[in-house]
What we know:
Number of helices of chain A: 7
Largest interface: A-B, 24 and 22 residues
CATH class of chain A: Alpha Beta
Strand order of the largest sheet of chain A: 6-7-8-3-9-10
Largest sheet of chain B: 11 strands, mixed
Distance between the termini of chain A: 22 Å
Low-confidence stretches of chain A: none
Mean pLDDT of chain A: 93
Oligomer: heterodimer
Helix content of chain A: 25-40%
Number of strands of chain B: 13
Largest sheet of chain A: 6 strands, mixed
Mean pLDDT of chain B: 91
Radius of gyration of chain A: 17 Å
Number of strands of chain A: 10
CATH architecture of chain A: 3-Layer(aba) Sandwich
Structural class of chain A: alpha/beta
Order of helices and strands of chain B: HHEEHEEEHEHEHEEEHEEHEHHHHHH
Radius of gyration of chain B: 29 Å
Amino acid sequence: xxxxxxxxxxxxxxxxxxxxxxxxxxxxxxxxxxxxxxxxxxxxxxxxxxxxxxxxxxxxxxxxxxxxxxxxxxxxxxxxxxxxxxxxxxxxxxxxxxxxxxxxxxxxxxxxxxxxxxxxxxxxxxxxxxxxxxxxxxxxxxxxxxxxxxxxxxxxxxxxxxxxxxxxxxxxxxxxxxxxxxxxxxxxxxxxxxxxxxxxxxxxxxxxxxxxxxxxxxxxxxxx
Amino acid sequence: xxxxxxxxxxxxxxxxxxxxxxxxxxxxxxxxxxxxxxxxxxxxxxxxxxxxxxxxxxxxxxxxxxxxxxxxxxxxxxxxxxxxxxxxxxxxxxxxxxxxxxxxxxxxxxxxxxxxxxxxxxxxxxxxxxxxxxxxxxxxxxxxxxxxxxxxxxxxxxxxxxxxxxxxxxxxxxxxxxxxxxxxxxxxxxxxxxxxxxxxxxxxxxxxxxxxxxxxxxxxxxxxxxxxxxxxxxxxxxxxxxxxxxxxxxxxxxxxxxxxxxxxxxxxxxxxxxxxxxxxxxxxxxxxxxxxxxxxxxxxxxxxxxxxxxxxxxxxxxxxxxxxxxxxxxxxxxxxxxxxxxxxxxxxxxxxxxxxxxxxxxxxxxxxxxxxxxxxxxxxxxxxx
Lengths: 224, 385
């Protein structure tokens, strides 16, 4: 299959108290289009950093990340912002919904950056909410929804611009087992039915089992 | 519609905090407006002065009078088209609390020089025909409930005894800024009664007012007048009416300066309070700003949200502060009575209040907006957990 993500010689270092701390060391990785991978590893192994770099919300110290043929490490901040709005859907551990916006408003948020009419936006949001089974909760504020429902709203928001890539950072980390299974099932459907490429960071082996491939990181390097 | 709605919802997230911030701004803007109005009122006399009139007084001090005989010589000065005189009376009406300016004036010649005092013709004739007659400004008459025909007793402080005047007219101001809180009566009555009571004539006045044919010749005419009385026993100082009024204001320069300084300090204080509120608000929302940026909104958008929210809160407080200034100014004016006239909230003051509110909103948001715009997404997301 054609690789959607091609990472070559990726390194990331942080400067803490005058000391250089390597987080990722000369890492190379390919993720195929439509693939669903789980990044696992102990705390500090660099999995969240790798996810942030793939999502274009952080910049590497060296190396390249090509996504859909575009070297995102060469993009300016403004270009990267635009690129993210089109190509990446985000699912966070703590949902990161806007507390003042309803479920509908949160899902609609990324569409505010597009030229779609109000009616077109409504149509898309309704469809996304239906997909995650929250049509009847459209008018509810995040604090009126359970954790699982909030995460489903976040997944609908991640889908709304129809990005190729969905990055999920511990998407079940704040949920109970049953709800976590629902969310993982939903991510699996996005991958299987809509062909979305998913990169998920998780500590949970059960969650990792739902992915096609498991990528282990140890001290910033891929473990054998 | 999305941005204003989001700004409004954000502003109402912590209702108590927003309410208290708005309340603080209301108090600050109203206080600023009140102090500005006080300063304006201080200068109101000078601003309402005519450039076509000169005032001549004793060069030593206003306390020293000028001979009444100067009137005829002043009329002869080239460029002078009319001469009137006035003398401060300083009487007390019922109680010392009821202060208002009282002048003994030269009758018709004085009224002719002050067309801004609008008096009905019949009342003017009645005043001029009655040697004991007096006229009062509308504001003053309303304050004490005087009607035309009422006897007005004043207890003299400079000219001892009780002086009773017949109120023959109530004048209005030609413009809103015209002072209508003064009381005028005939100098002739003062002079004659003084002679009867004390066996000698006053035959002197506090100041002369000259009407100019050409206002641009004010300096030249002033010099001519003062030169005419040089080396006499009562040398004169002649200046434009505005300069004369500003001379009074200058006596209280330090107080005015302090009032102006306080009015701006009030704004600086509320700016600091508002900046703290906005910094706290922005800090609490770092994760949301990071999320917005991750979703594709730029740093400028995030900064705009903060600035608009801050400006919306500040302008709400500013608008309410402006509205609160009017009853405050009325209450203040009624408390100080006629001590300061022209106590009106001007359009300029309202504009300054709104500009101050806008500046408070913009400046208070500047640093939080700048920080939020520069916030790294990964750092902002970490703010959650």
